Amino acid sequence: MMTLPGDGNIYRRPGSPYSWMRYSHAGVQYREGTKITDERKTQKVRRERMKQIGADDLGLQTFIEPEHERTTVNELLEADYRMRARNTSSFRSHIKPISVAFGHRTARSISARQLDDYLTARLALAKSPATIKGRCNSSTKNSALASSDKS
Fold first, then answer.
1. What was the pLDDT predicted at 142?
2. What's the domain count of the chain?
3. Phi, then psi, of 33 in degrees rounded to 5
4. Which of 61, 103, 123, 136 has its CA 20 to 30 A from that of 3?
5. What is the pLDDT of residues 35-49, one digit of tens each?
6. Residue 33: CB partners within 8 Å, gap ≥ 6?
7. Same domain, 77 and 17
8. Are residues 74 and 55 in the same domain?
9. Are residues 88 and 132 both part of a single domain?
């Protein structure tokens, strides 16, 4: 299948059975492994990525770089912990419930509704609103955890 300039391309690395994509956005070139061997499926993945870039160009959705798509909530919490240089048991106890609830998940996979449900459940446990707000204002909410209202 022929692609137009700007639509990225697909290639194989020597010795690898998998296809790779190469594309650019906002002056940055990206190379991304697909872990797919079938060319038709790889073309579909490339087209989806190009749609994401097009949506960003139109201002409809923010393009998230491939390495950031896989960032987990625990990684964000750890980065926040290091950035703020808070080495206290109090801070660790504040982020623990968030880590238990969402830590293993990618930050991008958590919707605003899921975050709201978490907050409602914490309030139902008779936690004060100020405590919950403090916990959620650590890196989770500020890092666009609830970037869209996906149900």
1. 44
2. 2
3. -75, 145
4. 61
5. 999 989 999 999 999
6. 18, 20
7. no
8. no
9. yes
Give the tens place of pLDDT for each residue, 114-140: 988 988 888 888 666 666 555 555 544
Amino acid in the structure at residue 127? K
What's the 3-state SS for the chain?
Answer: CCCCCCCCEEEECCCCCCEEEEEEECCEEEEEECCCCCHHHHHHHHHHHHHHHHHHHCCCCCCCCHHHHCCEHHHHHHHHHHHHCCCCHHHHHHHHHHHHHHCCCEHHHCCHHHHHHHHHHHHHCCCCHHHHHHHHCCHHHHCCCCCCCCC
Q: Which amino acid type is present at position 63?
A: F
To the question of pTM greater than 0.70 for the whole model, the response is no
Exposed (0-12), middle (13-18) or buried (19+): which is 21, by Cβ within 10 Å?
A: buried
User: Between these two residues, 76 and 81, which has the higher pLDDT value?
Assistant: 76
Considering the domain architecture, whether residues 41 and 103 belong to the same structural domain is answered as no
